[in-house]
Amino acid sequence: MTINVAAGxxxxxxxxxxxxxxxxxxxxxxxxxxxxxxxxLEGAITDQxxxxxxxxxxxxxxxxxxxxxxxxxxxxVTLQTVVAVRDKVVSAYQEILHMTV
Length: 101
Known about the structure:
This protein is an all-alpha fold and 101 residues long. Helix content is 86%, strand content 0%.
């Protein structure tokens, strides 16, 4: 399996930009982390939808193969990132549950 480094770097840049915006706006509203998480997940959903649309256009013969591969790869990297973050959150939650007070 190959991973598109540019797509991964773009995902991290997008997350950093979202975090920076959330820190600037969230300092007064108190919902910084929740807002950042929500916007990041919305971005992941958008990436998945773009990959699906590009695949459908390729099936219809209306898309350039390079743009289809880029969109699908970006969607795959985004999904892998979301799954990795989910796994870390579940692991941290389980660790908290096993702590003695």
